[in-house]
Design goal:
The complex is a heterodimer of chains A (about 725) and B (about 160). By secondary structure, chain A is α+β, with helices and mostly antiparallel strands. Chain B is an alpha+beta fold. Chain B has two domains: about 1-75, Ubiquitin-like (UB roll); about 85-145, DNA polymerase, domain 1 (Orthogonal Bundle), CATH 1.10.150.120. The termini of chain B are far apart. The chains are: A alpha+beta (about 725), B alpha+beta (about 160).
């Protein structure tokens, strides 16, 4: 038997059959061609009608819609095709979604590069995708009219057909594809009025679900190429440390190990299986030089933040004179503190790279295709357009997969060995060689008048800059707006208001983490507003409501959440409610959390969530994103902390970096309150309000104000 | 040399006995529906059935599997139409989807033992399966849907 013979996919038979002998000598094992489920066959680039970068119509009527955003669970693979298919009047059952390659035509209009993030995918796809569908539809109608020699205005389209009612003629899009391709693409096609939408606004089953429940969806982790090797890398256990020495010889002799490669961040062991690479890594006998961060620890960082709080910050917002106005009223002041957080995507970071003289090919679950091209080009000396990016499904992203560290390492290793290599992070690598949500300290001070109305609010926050690492050009006049988002633009009517930022770079890599600055700033802002309500002797819901007169959207979701939660009505003994409202990424979300304590452990029973994201595209996906955002925020509120000691991250796996478990998941009830107009995002806005809603509920229950995450009584 | 029975096929395996089943499935056999999430038995992404019981493939050295029967998500049902898989589709459970094969395998082992599990029994059986996307409520509903008698609630036959 030839052990290298591909065995392809085997039929499952009840009868036992002898199968391939599998051994370490087999190398890559069975060879399975890389493919993406959902990738249409027969509707590929040979399609006769491809009027733009997103659409191909085959002569058999198959419609392929290219999705230029990464599918990481947020549902773009369904919602974006819906936008195009709506205006195309396509038969939804014939629509297939395919991941787009990397290319200039897919540049994100706000980012300037191709990428997925900031809860923007549907927002930025809304115009161009509908136009792409409408233009194609007009061309198909024109092609039919020309064929039938009738006025196009007397024809219309319906579910994949052009019809001419007068003559009772009908032609499918597939039949018309070739003729339509010969016509000019209209620049300003006519779009439907929202009331005529057939697909948009109604829940559509997600196109990626069947593959995902059968184990057929291919994540970056699942990529397998002929001759591919698998790598594990060792990096300094102390942040910023440097490699001193290692012994490659012994490791190279281990079964299944093929190469030991030094890379910028450390050493990689490359073998025929991940297990072989891991075993090799253990035997490297590594020695590291600690470097400048060797004394960094979380307690020291907390003290440093307190010290910096006394220094003047950069003014991000100033209305009136908060300091003077404050002196006149009843004074309140509080500090809110949050730790670093890891993303802990369920799929650890990984990237497959193949460096050839003529170009690089990548297979990667990435949020930033253009960045991948630039990363690989820099390392290989090739041009970005010589880097082909195959985007796989992402086993979670949450911002982490915008980063390039794992891509750069994979390219370095692949370049050294000259074969396709898949670099895989262990969970420990994933939590330690990471990019974190910043730890921050925020001080809020307010003055209340005799009626309990805020006269002044002064906020100062201390923390690092995410944009300095990610998009330095986004820093304007020294200000990284993500550091103060949700603070400087807080919605409550306060005549004298200021926000300052003291930047402090501790040397810990920081990054976008689901909802970015809002993730910590909503906790501070909505916690403190609750404190003011209490100090004013007012109900926390009514207090907020009264200060949101100029914010109808905020008020609407707040009122809806309160009404649906039965705010003010009694709860079972031992339970209490808390409320929070916050805007992020263009959407307003209000949440009411019902909590109790079970043996001093915090238990969240139910969360009522009201969301206004403007226009609704796929309602069930919005509901799912709210559920998901709440779970993500609850993990942070109840458990999440990355801490440092002697420059090392102390957490390594899910036992010491716990995330929410099934039994901890509250009932979640989501209510959509779309106000129409501009679209808001949905991937992130569900996260910010939950931590303060729970903390406020715990205050209502115990009288204890919790100002630190994770929450502990 | 070990005999491994996976999804009804027999493999003769000549690999170090301490190799976890997970890496044999994924790297050698191309059965990538079984996922790697933690490598320490802490997340459940790698859940398979060994002689019908839910087990973590990352914690199962192949030396312990001689003559045992392993079922992965690829072998759970002939056409990917196990009642749980159908229920998962009906409830629109997956988001990123990475944890879901492990969830389904854990739930399938539960239903075999307890055809009508209570909510608490579901939570307990799936307590070791983590979902970073927070799809837990839909998972619970989908397990309950799959446990319903044929014909109820639609979608499952
Ligand atoms: S990978 Fe096996 S339990 Fe996490
Ligand atoms: S669906 Fe993403 S981890 Fe469960």
């Amino acid at each position: 038997m030839n052990p290298n013979k591909p065995a392809s996919v085997r039929p499952l038979s009840p009868a036992r059959r002898d199968f391939l002998k599998v051994s370490a000598a087999l190398g890559g094992g069975l060879l399975l061609a890389f493919y993406l489920p959902g990738r249409a066959r027969g509707a590929g680039s040979a399609a006769p009608f491809a009027p733009n970068a997103w659409l191909r119509i085959a002569s058999d009527g198959g419609i392929t819609i290219l999705v230029d955003k990464s599918e990481m669970g947020q549902g773009v693979m369904t919602a974006l095709p819906m936008l195009l298919a709506e205006e195309l009047d396509a038969d939804w059952n014939k629509v297939r979604a395919e991941f787009a390659p990397a290319g200039p035509e897919y540049k994100h209009p706000w980012f300037g590069v191709q990428g997925t993030g900031g809860s923007t995918s549907v927002r930025v796809g809304w115009e161009p995708l509908r136009k792409a569908g409408a233009a194609a539809r007009e061309m198909l109608v024109a092609a039919a009219a020309k064929k039938w020699r009738v006025d196009p205005a007397t024809c219309h389209s319906d579910r994949g057909f052009v019809l001419h009612p007068k003559s009772k003629r009908k032609a499918s899009y597939g039949e018309l594809a070739a003729a339509a391709a010969a016509l000019p693409v209209p620049a300003e096609p006519k779009l439907k009025e929202t009331k005529h939408f057939k697909l948009i606004g109604k829940s559509r089953p997600r196109l990626d679900t069947p593959a995902k429940v059968r184990g057929q969806a291919q994540f970056g982790m699942d990529v397998k190429l002929p001759g591919m090797l698998i790598a594990a890398a060792a990096r300094s256990p102390v942040l910023g440390g440097k490699l001193k020495s290692f012994s490659a010889e012994k490791v190279k002799a281990l079964p299944g190990v093929r190469y030991v490669v030094e890379i910028s961040n450390g050493v990689a062991v490359v073998g025929t299986s991940y297990w072989a690479a891991l075993k090799g890594r253990e035997a490297l006998g590594l020695e590291w030089e600690a470097g400048p961060l060797a004394t960094l620890d979380s307690a020291g960082l907390s003290a440093k933040f307190q010290e910096l709080m006394g220094t003047p910050g950069l003014v991000a917002k100033a209305i009136g004179d908060a300091k003077t106005a404050m002196a006149a009223g009843k004074h309140l002041e509080a500090d809110y503190e949050v730790p670093y957080l890891a993303h802990a995507c369920m799929e650890p970071m990984n990237c497959t790279a193949w460096v050839k003289p003529e170009g690089v090919e990548l297979w990667v679950g990435t949020q930033g295709q253009s960045s991948c091209q630039i990363t690989a080009a820099k390392i290989t000396g090739l041009k970005p357009e010589q880097v082909k990016v195959n985007t796989t499904y992402l086993g979670g992203g949450f911002g982490r997969r915008f980063a390039q560290d794992f891509v750069a390492e994979a390219v370095e290793i692949a370049k050294a060995v000259g074969k396709p290599v898949k670099l895989v992070f262990s969970r420990e690598d994933d939590l330690r060689a990471a990019h974190y949500r910043p730890a921050t300290l925020t001080r809020l001070a307010a003055g209340l008048d005799a009626e309990g109305k805020p006269l002044a609010l002064a906020i100062k926050t201390v923390g690092p800059s995410i944009m300095a690492a990610a998009f330095p050009s986004a820093i304007k006049d020294g200000l990284d707006s993500t550091a103060v988002e949700g603070l400087a633009d807080q919605p409550y009517a306060v005549p004298n208001f200021s926000t300052e930022w003291v930047r402090h770079e501790a040397g810990v890599p920081v990054w976008f983490w689901r909802s970015v600055g809002h993730s910590q700033n909503a906790f501070a802002m909505e916690g403190f507003i609750d404190e003011l309500a209490h100090a004013a002797g007012k109900d926390p819901f009514e207090f907020r409501r009264a200060l949101l007169g100029a914010q109808p959207k905020a008020r609407a979701v707040l009122e809806l959440a309160a009404a649906k939660a039965g705010w003010g009505k009694p709860l079972p003994k031992g339970q209490a409610r808390g409320i929070a409202v916050h805007e992020s990424f263009g959407s307003w979300v209000a949440q009411v959390a019902e909590v109790s304590l079970e043996n001093q452990r915090i238990r969240v029973h139910r969360v009522i969530c009201a969301v206004d994201c403007g226009q609704v595209v796929n309602p069930d996906t919005i509901v799912a994103q709210m559920e998901s955002g709440i779970a993500f925020g609850l993990s942070a509120a109840l458990h999440g902390a990355i801490t440092l000691k002697d420059g090392r991250v102390q957490q390594g796996n899910f036992h010491d970096y716990p995330i929410l478990r099934m039994g901890e998941m509250p009932k979640v009830e989501v209510f959509l309150a779309p106000s129409g107009g501009t679209l808001g995002g949905v991937g992130e806005p569900g996260t910010p309000p939950i931590a303060p809603a729970v903390a406020n509920a715990l205050f209502a229950l115990t009288g204890k104000r919790l100002r630190k995450l994770p929450l502990a009584l | 040399m070990l005999n491994l029975y996976i999804n009804g096929d027999r493999y003769r395996i000549d690999l170090p006995g301490d190799t976890p089943l997970l890496w044999v499935l994924r790297d050698q056999l191309g059965l990538t529906g079984t996922k790697f999430g933690c490598g320490e038995g802490l997340c459940g992404a790698c859940t398979v059935h060994i002689d019908g019981e839910a087990a973590r493939a990352c914690q199962t050295p192949i030396s312990t599997l001689n003559d045992k029967e392993v079922t992965t998500i690829e072998g759970l049902s002939p056409r990917g139409d196990h009642p749980l898989q159908k229920a998962w589709v009906a409830e629109e459970v997956p988001q990123c989807g990475y944890c879901q094969c492990g969830m389904i395998m854990s739930a399938a082992a539960l239903l075999k033992k307890k055809p009508k599990p209570s909510e608490t029994e579901i939570d307990q059986a799936l307590a070791g399966n983590l979902c970073r996307c927070g799809t837990y409520n839909r998972i619970r509903k989908a397990v309950q849907r799959a446990a319903l008698p044929v014909g109820k609630q639609g979608g499952l036959k």
